[in-house]
Write a structure and sequence with these properties.
The complex is a heterodimer.
Chain A: H1 2-18, H2 35-102, H3 116-125, H4 144-163, H5 173-198, H6 205-226, H7 232-256, H8 261-285, H9 288-296, H10 314-330
Chain B: H1 28-31, H2 39-58, H3 65-68, H4 73-85, H5 101-121, H6 128-137, H7 140-155, H8 159-184, H9 193-212
Classes of the chains: A mainly alpha, B mainly alpha.
Main location (chain B): Golgi
Subcellular location (chain B): Golgi apparatus membrane; Membrane
Pfam family, one (chain B): Yip1
Chain lengths: ~325, ~220
Amino acid sequence: SGAPAAEWGGFEDNMQSGGSAVIDMENMDDTSGSSFEDMGEMHQRMKEEEEEEEAESEAGAGEEEDGEFLGMKGLRGQLGRQVADQMWQVGKRQASRAFSLYANIDILRPYFDVEPVQVRARLLESMIPVKMINFPQKIAGELYGPLMLVFTLVAILLHGMKTSDTIIREGTLMGTAIGTCFGYWLGVSSFMYFLAYLCNAQITMVQMLSLLGYGLFGHCITLFVTYNIHFHSLFYIFWLVVGGLSTLRMVAVLVSRTVGHTQRLILCGTLAALHMLFLLYLHFAYHKVVEGILDTLEGPNMLPFQRVARDIPVVSNAVLNTTAKTIALTL
Amino acid sequence: FPGLADVSIPQDIPVEGEITVPVGSHSPDEDYSTLDEPVKDTIMRDLKAVGKKFVHVMYPRKSSALLRDWDLWGPLVLCVSLALMLQGGSADSKDDGGPQFAEVFVIIWFGAVVITLNSKLLGGTISFFQSLCVLGYCVMPLTVAMLVCRLVLLAGAGTVSFIIRLIVVGAMFGWSTLASTAFLADSQPPNRKALVVYPIFLFYFVISWMILTFTPQ
């Protein structure tokens, strides 16, 4: 019974050094309180300790072989090499731990957990202002819809810039479009989140991103229509109605989550102003035909705006010219 | 294990066998080390793989060959040729002409990366590079459309040519989207296919729009 006892003893040793049920608090990263991440940490550490043991046993075996015929010099070289090895191991371990914690795409996964029907419902809801503002309204913290809307806005903007013959001097068309849309979405969301923090509103960053992103649905519709049908007054109608509806919805939701008249006023005023002005900016900055028409307002005896198209297909050029002439004549 | 201590082999059965353990089947790489083969063989093998994938894109059947051995040679060649053909504006024009080379490159690769991340976040089972491979190869119909557009524009830039280009680009755009959907949508849970298809649609739409609005200086 000597052999079986030794075998069982070895098994026990393995169990004890492989991991303990006691969590060493000073080694814990205080990143989150979720037990899921704690379990992941413990599991990772157990794995690494096993690997370390294997590495050490291998290195130990190697050392015994080499130290025998290298003598004193060999021993010092061995020590240096082992120290360097250990530092490398520690560094690698920390880097891989940080990487697996922060660069993990799974952090974003819960925000993309949607069904197509939900996305459609939220898109339609974003145009319907809520009536009940005394009870905090629910905002879905979802990022798929807003992200897709931002990309759609980029595509629509590109189309508008191209057909209106916009000249971008520094930078490229695509870069400007992406920069404008993403800059608005991320920048205004952050600014509004900061204001909400100052005004004690109950809203998180993801919810703010989601709210503003879905508010861009109105912008997409307006720009899609008015970049193709170039009536000046049509744009103003769309700006007021469509832009106004989506602004009202966002404002109502924010109001329902804020207490105090001054705070409500600040938040809603800022959001409404930024949202509506952005739509105005998108239309005027990237729509040269409209700018040309504004020129004709300065003098009634000026000639109708003659566009010198550079590379626009003849079909739309004729339409644009006719439109410009008719509007200038009716003013 | 005391019960096994007295296992013994009966004397009348001869014990025989090989002392050395056969190593088993080599993988083809170990059998003929590909370092020693002539360069032509290596290139031809890679070219054949790329060519086979092009054929798969032309006739999008649900086969897994495109996904299994992914490679990025085909997407690179297509992307470079598309970007070269889209470089329309003459060098001495003082305003920004058509999309520059770097712009097209960045759009295609950045767009493909975003779509891949999106499909992974939505619960897709396909790997990062496999998805990049499929999206890159499915740009091929649009490259063909660009070629056709350039040829049509050599003949003239009137309304008729615009309509021809519109039809060609529209057809190729539909083909690209269908081909990539055939490969990518299968890796998603069935009720979320629309969520994955929409960004692909947008991506190829932007590329088609760049092709359609291209006019040489």
